[in-house]
Amino acid sequence: MKTGFPLPPAPRSPRFERFLNVFHAWHGYLPPPQTEGKTMLIGYARVSTREQETDLQLDALQRAGVTKIFQEKASSVGLRLQLTAAIASLRPGDLLVVYKIDRFARSLKDLLTILDRIADAGASIRSLSEPLDTSSPLGVFMVQILGAVAQLERSMIRERSMAGQAAAIQRGVRVGRPRTIPDDDVADVLRLWNSGHYTLDSVAFVFDAHPSAIKRLIYASSRHGLRKGDRRGKLLH
After folding, report:
1. Would you call 1 helix, strand, or coil by DSSP?
2. How many other C-beta atoms lie within 10 A of the C-beta of residue 87?
3. Is residue 111 within 8 Å of residue 143, measured between CB atoms?
4. pTM across the whole model
5. SS3 string of 101-156?
6. In terms of DSSP H, where are the helices of the chain?
7. Among positive and negative, which fits the CA dihedral 102, 104, 108, 111?
8. N or C of the chain: less Cβ packing under 10 Å?
9. Per residue of the chain (237 residues), what is the pLDDT tens digit?
């Protein structure tokens, strides 16, 4: 429709804005520049699983005066598209605000890489739970120290967990999830399977178990697994 005056731009929903930010970050596009001389507070919140919520982080960010927040539910090991979009939206003088440092960095190496990307954008980062602010050289130093301490703590926790698991195995404790098939039924399961007249499905039906559980039990007993080419529903002779 043609008119004698230009139409005002259509309003964009927050969901559409987040989509554009992720799309631009993924394809290497840069959002339009902001007004110079105006510091913008950009927040980032993350939880690791779908069962967790970012409400605590969002409340803290909003109390700090952050109005534009990128949030996602993703593991720190995988892709963090919203973090990429948040860093891509930074302009000189902006401030990226996070609830805790471990919400955006998974290791000291990852932390230093993110700090370099933020510094390249001419922005800085602030943590609400730690006295960290990279707008000063001392703040950058403190971020690096805290990142190193966090990585050391994770390494020590992993080492203690492995040591405890090894000690439990030496004491005869079975590590891992419990068996779905009682020990008293193991001999009967193997006897039916070795007879050659039962499939995995039929053995699983007899003992009210999943075929995968029967297959794992047979593999553990033989240490060779099923013969290549055998199917779950095929009768073996």
Report:
1. coil
2. 22
3. yes
4. 0.48
5. HHHCCCCHHHHHHHHHHHHHCCCEEEECCCCEECCCHHHHHHHHHHHHHHHHHHHH
6. 14-27, 55-63, 81-88, 108-120, 137-170, 183-194, 200-206, 211-222
7. negative
8. N
9. 444 444 445 555 666 666 666 665 565 554 544 444 567 899 999 887 766 788 889 999 999 899 899 988 877 677 788 898 999 999 998 999 999 888 887 777 788 888 889 888 999 888 888 777 777 777 778 777 876 777 787 788 888 888 888 887 888 776 666 667 777 788 888 888 888 888 888 888 888 888 888 888 888 777 644 443 444 444 343
Which residue reads 């043609």 in tokens?
2
C-alpha 126/C-alpha 131 separation (Å) is 8
User: CB-based burial of residue 214 (10 Å sphere; 0-12 exposed, 13-18 middle, 19+ buried)?
Assistant: buried
Residue with tokens 């922005």: 123
What is the rounded distance in angstroms from the CA atom of residue 139 to the CA atom of residue 116?
Answer: 14
CA distance 84 to 87: 5
What are 62's two structure tokens? 């909003």
Give the Cα separation of 109 and 231 in Å (integer).
46
Q: Which residues are catalytic?
A: 48
Longest dimension (CA), the chain: 87
Question: Angle 83-117-32 (CA atoms, 0-180°, nearest 5)?
Answer: 70
